Records
---
Amino acid sequence: MGWDQWANDRPSGRPYLHCVTGREQFVLRTVEERGVRFIRLWFVDVLGLLKSISIPVSELESALVDGVGLDGSSLEGASRLREHDVIAYPDPRTFQVLPWKPDSIVARMFCDVRQPDDGPFGGDSRATLRRLLEHAAGLGYTMQVGCEVEFFIFGPLGSNGAAPTTLDDGAYFDLTPLDVGSDFRRLTIEYLEQMGIPVKASHHEVAPSQHEIQLAHTDALSMADAVTTFRIAVKEAAHELGAYATFMPKPLAAHPGSGMHLHISLFEGDRNAFHTDSKEPLSPTGRAFLAGVLAHAREMTAVTNQWINSYRRLATGFEAPAFVSWTRRGGAALVRVPSRRPGRAAGARFELRSPDPSCNTYMVLALVLAAGLRGIERGYELQAESIDDQPNGAPQLPLDLREATDLFDDSELARETLGDRLCDVFVANKRRELDDERRTVTEFDRSRYLRLL
Amino acid sequence: MTDAWIYGTHGSERTSRLLAELGFSPHRVAANGTLRPSDGGSRAPALAVILADGLEQPSCSELCARLAADEDLGEVPVLVALASGGLAEGIGITEGHELLVEPFSADELQARIARARRAVNGIDHEDVVRVGSLEMNLATYQVAIDARPVDFTYMEYELLKFLVTHPRRVFSREALLSRVWGYDYYGGARTVDVHVRRVRAKLGSEHAARIKTVRSVGYRWEGT
């Protein structure tokens, strides 16, 4: 369905006008009416980092019909296998004028990356999530996702590796009479709403310079697109105010890191399949889904927490989870199930608290959904609730990226859900990052050993 | 393309031609069947024309009643075209939204269509719908508030267009899904709520409240 349907139904070799649908017409007319100069074609690499190719308006019609050729290894992060041609087809449903380029009007569209023979390209994590969502829709399920993203805004960055300046420092206020934090949040929310990403709430977080923005729930693909868009919107807004935004999981040793809590629910048509009228926090379907997510939590940690730095957030507490546990109260479990509110059946959900905002959201949501569906299909039993943040024998999350990568590499669920190509490329990237770190002498080495030894 | 469906056979070729000249995409539809073109098409047309002369099974008034009662076709503007003798016999003169007497010119047809669409959907002769400071141009897909452009995605635009051109009627989420999204979605019924929220956010304070949530039913557009 969706784009595939359109692509497959497209009569090949017929004159252009015969296959322009309402969606393409909408894009073409809007570009003309609004004086759009360039279109950015967006896709993400295996690590979820945004890649963009810019095309002039004159190339738009042919891009919509025939796609744009690119080198598929550009989706493979830093560890590229080999060059090969793929075709990026812009998805007109994601056409949106970018709000932060007022002097020259620029629009974006997310792309579906396909093989030249029109087959699926295994390295495109966005298309992989979309295929899984279609599979789930075939079973009658749609996953809804809400999201709380934390991040830091620092002063202009110094040399590479230098410690960042927090904006809440008195010294920084001497330089800027404005409260950069609240200006920043206002500008960001304006950008996000103009991009069709409604914001539920925003506030200053615990750490200096740290902020949180809550994105209202939507379907999984729209949420993954929203997070991708969110990261660039936040960086643009910070840049306009002379600051720098980062989604690095743990930039300051002495303060909490940045997480990205995902609020997950599953709908069967109009009905929240997690809701129950009984005293249980979740319905039997919800319990089995959550059991699936917990059963596979360790092997998906490499994706929810994909950087070496991610584990510094998980290691130091501050409410970051360390064990595979769930709770209704307490702030340190991997999963929190919010209390039911009478008359709010649609709100039944659980909150996955391990991911950080620098993850590949497409891959994370694909794995969460696949693990949950497996829990339902195979009737997994939900483990006992953890009380007062005590693990009570719950398994520990991987301690570092190496352990997580090994678990991921051996994960049958990951291979089945994401395919061998995406898994292999992901693992190659992570092994390379680990090798690079293994060869690095750090501040830790010097402070610990230089005088001692 | 904007579809126009033609019921009845008397003079249908000429009416087809005139509609095509006005930029519509005409389809001839059997009056005694499903009321829809045989080649499918899930979307309701912009317009229906009933050629009443010689129409017997069903009669013109029966056909109008069936269209009005149809879940998808209920708010399609209906033009009834009569042979001049029909006026004296009173056939169909109280049905439909506009009346035409054959032979009619392309100019007259255009004027009658504009009146019917204005009355039913609030669309003016330039394909623009105005609600206070909100202006929606259906020909160019552009939306402006206080003459400042507001950028919508395609589905947001389609949802707003549907609501704005069907004022005062409550639509369930399921009805909106099938009428606006057609078969092209997999987000489930919650998709509608999510899009309504996005559209409200972009409409801003002056217009957001025009999309009324009708509890445990659906949504309604309050045009005035």
---
Amino acid sequence: MAQIDLKDLRHSYKPDPASDADYALKRMDVSWRDGGAYALLGPSGCGKSTLLNIISGLVAPSEGRILFDGADVTDLAPNDRHIAQVFQFPVIYDTMTVYDNLAFPLRNRGVARGKVDQRVREIAEMLELTDKLRSRAAGLGPDDKQKISMGRGLVRDDVNVIMFDEPLTVIDPHLKWKLRSKLKELHQRVKVTMIYVTHDQTEALTFADEVIVMQEGQVVQIGTPVELFERPAHTFVGHFIGSPGMNVLPCELADGAARYRGAIIPLAEAPTRAAGAARTEMGVRPEFVRFAGAADPGAVSVDVVRVADAGRHRIVETRAGEDRIFLLSPEGAEIPEGAAHVAFARERTRLYADGWLASDPAGA
Amino acid sequence: MTMLFESVVKRVGADMHIHETDLELADDGFNVLLGATGAGKTTLIKLMAGLESVTSGRILLHGRDVTKLSPQRRNVSLVHQFFVNYPHMSVFENIASPLRVARVGAAEIKRRVAEAAELMRLGPYLERKPAELSGGQQQRTALARAIVKDSALVLLDEPLANLDYKLREELRDELPRLFADRGAIVVYATSEPSEALLLGGRTATLREGRVTQLGLTSEVYRQPRDLATAQVFSDPPMNVAEIEKAGAQIRLGDGARWRAEGAIAAAPDGRYTMGVRPNFVTPTEDARDLVRIEGRVLVTELSGSESVAHFELPGAVWVSQCHGVHPYEIGESRPFYLDPARCLYFDGAGARVAH
């Protein structure tokens, strides 16, 4: 287990990168503490797989160093880095028993028989595979197969980090719940550093202590799930996280408040980084928009155009001119038809200047 | 226009793939097939398309028996999970291909491709090859090809499963609008309950080759006919437990008890299975008349917008889901509050106890 430091890392697949645009991975400086649970989150092509391959040693970075517990591993081959990887499609030997599959990484490294047996049984117990140890892997369901894949990552006690590359993408929702909570439980027990790569916000937010959000090769924000939800550093994070994402509305700044379509929207945090911005926007999540009276302070007039049933709440889509404003309405609450007014929770409305959050938390 | 399944059975050797099924699918709104992998969604779609033949029973499209018709003669469009485009053809030619096969005139092809491309927001990419497009654009190309044909039957087999989360959200939002008023019967297979809900229309829940219920999506979700339907249509999984009903009282394990209301009150005394969705089991007593239960917290998931706790009851692991950020300690025993008005009850055969 190890602390991982990425120092001034940068990568380009081109031989002579000239501009920033030539870099698949823009300069980054990141520290992951020993035993933490991290997620790399971003859309396809954001650079998360490049980063994963650099850490595992499949790709040598153009610039920068990778340190495991302070030791430079940048030039080490993948095998010498002591990393376990779990992929989207379970990598297991169908003809072997579950036991032999789990034992494989240990036997491969010449671990003594007694020790192999002890570790395999321990891991099988945690994964609830004990009663299947003698079964052939071929006959198992997709969730058990992915459990074996995870188990093969967990069975070695000499790994610096376990990396998961979209491990639940091909798993059905019900099994996803089970495997996700299993993985979380395992992390609580074994405390090995884990890095989880995904485009799925739910998986990232529910698994990780800290999420690294990437876009176009750049780290846009590093934060706890709650921080990413409550204070997105960039409108991209606001949009990408949350379902639907944050409402981002063009506005003007007027005496520390936002002016949007004639309404004055008070802000709990005074924007300190908005001076000279070419573009100012306010961001507020659908969770913090509510229907209001026409005379309420900060009320904006909208048209309700659509209501979608999400089960435990409904997603209401409204239009204010060209802008779409979403809000969540609890199951059973009344939703007006046609013309209505909405208001934004003051404590939850943020100002963005040229895409970036323009304020700090009160008292910071 | 409707599609009818009359006593359709699909058996392969000794394996029952689809048990005897009667279905009626309409052209107003999506017909969602919801079920886990292997429940029979793709088999049903192949039967509809004519890619597989029924073992017994009949399929009627618009009153016409199409059971024995080949796929080519059924006027269907099919979009798979893995976007299939012709790699050597431009986006324009990809979309135009079914029209070329049908020998539509050049001017008409141009007009219809332009229309479909506009709907799928592919206008600027018509001259590109599929490989030069993002995953979302490739899948939109496949969808445009399905639209351009003006098929009577459009079959979408998990069309968004391989796309990024955000893109999926966007297309899921657009799809029902794109197909509205086209007069086609649209069938959409998914393994995700949340997707079924948001698509609206009607939903057929499937488990192990059986359609357990078909109805308006929100009705199937809120009024499941049986335990299988309730479980298939729940994400996170529905919390279930055995309860004892005696007189006017419901008893869960040794601890919690509450008053039997509604249909269960009139049901005979005895053991039943109860089901309750995780959002009706909360860590705070934020409404009146909630029932307190004790559980030990195993795992928590805090996403910012909501807090999920997996907790252990005697004999079961349940999930609680609430809005906002709720602090939990792993391993702590603490109260949760369940809403008895939201509990569903099922008899020994799994049928819901309802009026």
